[in-house]
Amino acid sequence: MVKGAGGLDRILAMEIVRVTERAAIAAARFRGRGDEKAADEAAASAMRMELDKLPIKGTVVIGEGEQDETPTLYIGETLGKGGGPDVDIALDSLEGTTVCAKNLPNALSVIAVAAKGSLLFAPNVYMQKIAIGPGFAAGTVDIDASPRENIENLAKAKGVPVGEITACILDRPRHARLIEAVREAGAAIRLIGDGDVAGVIHATEPGETGVDIYLGSGGASEGVLAAAALRCIGGQMQGRLILDTPDKKARAAKMGITDFDKVYSAEDMAKGDVIFAATGVTDGNLLAGVRFGRDVITTDTIVLRSSSRTVREIRARHRDLERL
Ligand code: VTB
Fold first, then answer.
1. Are 181 and 152 in the same domain?
2. Whose Cα sits closest to atom 16 in ligand 1?
3. Are 223 and 269 a contacting pair, CB within 8 Å?
4. Which of 36, 69, 170, 248 to mutate to test the pocket of ligand 1 (most atoms within 8 A of CB)?
């Protein structure tokens, strides 16, 4: 993408807001209805409709699934009305499908856009992740260090006792040992049901969210999206794809991955100029969810741009309700 003032990433940063707003509104109509599939499909088709209005030639590198798994927004699909630059798109029209179906906090509609070849083309597998916010020396935490070492090093760097550190972890049986180790180290844990893109973003704003570090494994797609956000906000992240079967290795190889144990930094997952937008579907720490009024729908969105590090918070009041 063209850099700096007048650059296309600058114009797109404003355009992209409509994409996540519209997906979030579509998903929010299904909040608390226990129907994950309907919420997901509504969000995906709304997102697709808005993306096709943008003057870009986009390739979905992180999407709703691999081509045989989803009718729309699959990895490799091309989008946009063309006439503009070639870009990579990472998206999750409804990140936190289950939390949306249960109307619990932190469901988001999310997108990241960067120049072609800048976003990690990753299969739909788990990724081990660790992330902290900005302002710490490189190497303060490390994906290969023990939870105790990471918690202690972070507390030391922050100048607080270990007991004042809170780790955000997805509440899953596979994390039982990790949760135990973090508690043994003396830190507190915020367990989340879903939504680890929000979890990683929360670690970048400990003052507001109470989360200092994100730990554990979640979707690789969510990892790339979180890395894109971190590139814009600052902070450190490492991720490693969990390719523990021959099939997963083969799928990764098909996407051009040769080193199956590679530790990816945020920069490795989202290079160059990146724009990122997220609209709240359900209420969360960083964003309020969609509000349906009598004749107005209100959405809250953050739009981030790595080249300027601008964080925009956009509250929109939508009045053309028949269209939405
Ligand atoms: C996480 C979470 C997502 O997938 O990435 C999770 O942040 C990982 O998969 O919201 P499991 O649910 O199998 O643990 C989501 O839940 C999206 O499906």
1. yes
2. 194
3. yes
4. 170
